[in-house]
Design a protein that fits this description.
- By secondary structure, the protein is an alpha/beta fold.
- Helices cover 31% and strands 25% of the residues.
- The protein contains six helices and nine strands.
Length: 216
């Protein structure tokens, strides 16, 4: 059996809060978690819609039914099958989306990249692969992937603000898992500003407001 690939056009979907234009001062790109869809995920960020902020939620290219063969569909960014090409595809997708958005905005806007759950690995792999323009990287309810060489991009990352937020009752971020973050930081010379909040695998409005105050 011979396995080959061919690159084909894809139609990617994304959703906006805010209207692009010269009045925008902040751009947020927010990447959903496994099984979510972008328009529903974007509702979590409605409080950021202040007239000077554009919030963009791209949707993963892979879709499936969340309950068997019917019911509401969900999206994901990748699975282990054809892993490398899926990473390459979504990284290029996100890079082109960011570039497109920036052409519609003033010369300088503050760019925040946020990933939630599976989206944390998504934004990290995009950042490390293509070095997009941004100011703040926010990982929410997920860790940076262990298999990336952050040290190789240390100078690039040291000019950015790196944040990690998680709930103390998040079943996916146990103390053992959080130890991985410490090892990544120690081995690669990078530093995430950690914030733990009382809660689970979620984005509470109060914590999002607190993050916004820190960024401002």
């Amino acid at each position: 059996m011979l396995h080959q690939t061919i690159v084909v056009p894809r139609t990617a979907h994304y959703y906006l809060l805010g209207q692009p234009g010269p009045h925008i001062r902040r751009l947020w790109i927010v990447c959903h978690g496994y099984g979510q869809v972008a328009d529903e995920f974007l509702e979590e960020f409605r409080l950021l819609d202040d007239g000077a902020t554009l919030i963009v939620a791209p949707e993963g290219l892979n879709h499936f039914y969340r309950k068997g063969f019917d019911g509401p569909p969900g999206a994901n960014w990748m699975t282990r099958r054809h892993r490398e090409t899926e990473i390459s595809d979504y990284a290029q997708y996100l890079q082109e989306l960011l570039t497109h958005c920036l052409t519609l905005l003033p010369t300088y806007v503050r760019v925040v990249l946020l990933g939630f759950s599976q989206g944390t690995a998504t934004v990290c792999r995009w950042v490390m692969r293509l070095q997009p323009q941004f100011d703040d990287l926010v990982l929410w309810a997920g860790l940076p992937p262990e298999d990336l060489d952050y040290a190789a991009q240390r100078n690039y990352l040291q000019t950015k603000n790196l944040y990690l937020l998680y709930g103390t009752n998040d079943p996916f971020l146990t103390p053992d898992r959080l130890d991985i973050l410490q090892k990544i930081e120690n081995d690669n010379g990078v530093n995430f500003k950690n914030t733990a909040f009382e809660g689970g695998h979620e984005i509470p409005a109060a914590e999002l407001r607190a993050l916004l105050e820190r960024l401002n």
